[in-house]
Amino acid sequence: MSSTSPRLRISEIFHSLQGESTRVGLPTVFVRLTGCPLRCVWCDTEYAFTGGEMRDLDAILAEVARHGTRYVCVTGGEPLAQKPCLVLLRALCDVGYSVSLETSGALDVSSVDPRVAKIMDLKAPGSGEVDKNLWANLTFIGSSDEIKIVIADEADYLWAREQLQEHQIPQRCTVLLSPVQGKLDPQDLAAWVLRDHLPVRMQLQMHRIIWGERTGV
């Protein structure tokens, strides 16, 4: 192990099926980094806010390789809250993985390796963190990236519809709308999308449908 290997605080590394995004269903290794500056009211990974274990980049790469999977998702928490995350993303790409990054959209994505597929949130008002959206990030979103908006109610949906039009987001990339599980009936969100002919992909969290509320999936 290199003595200069960057170190990151890791909440967990696990092998599962991707439950969201256009990569849904693909066997994937998830590298979940600890820490997040946001506190979305519906967050389902609060356990990743604190704790975790400091691990060398070399050890992280070795653990990822052990699972023998092509796809890797770096997530959190908010992974970009740790500066060495950029080094990790680049290293994963360098050794040939197909890499995605799940990020809140509140931190600058301009330095993310262009080989990485950015799955970036826009925080709707129902999240409690709408003021944290860094709109300049849209400049760095391309056709291989995706925008995700989690919808808690019809007010969130109407907000999302307005942002998609104002910023011409569907012309940039795939847009994903997700209902807050247990708060918004998916049938309602589906009805609004169909009513408005919205150019988006609605998604449910497949991993939670399969395994329920648990870590490591």
Q: What does this 3D model show about the protein?
A:
The chain is an alpha/beta fold. It has a single domain, classed as TIM Barrel. The chain contains five helices and nine strands, in the order βββαβαβββαβαβα. A nine-stranded mixed beta sheet has the order 3-1-2-4-5-6-7-8-9. Helix 4 links the parallel strand 8 and strand 9. It is globular, with a radius of gyration of 17 Å. The mean pLDDT is 95.
Q: If strands are numbered along the chain, what order do they take across the biggest sheet?
A: 3-1-2-4-5-6-7-8-9
The total strand number stands at 9
Number of helices: 5
CATH superfamily: Aldolase class I
CATH topology: TIM Barrel
**Between the first and last Cα atoms, what is the distance in angstroms?**
29 Å
What CATH architecture would you give?
Alpha-Beta Barrel
The first-level CATH class is given as Alpha Beta
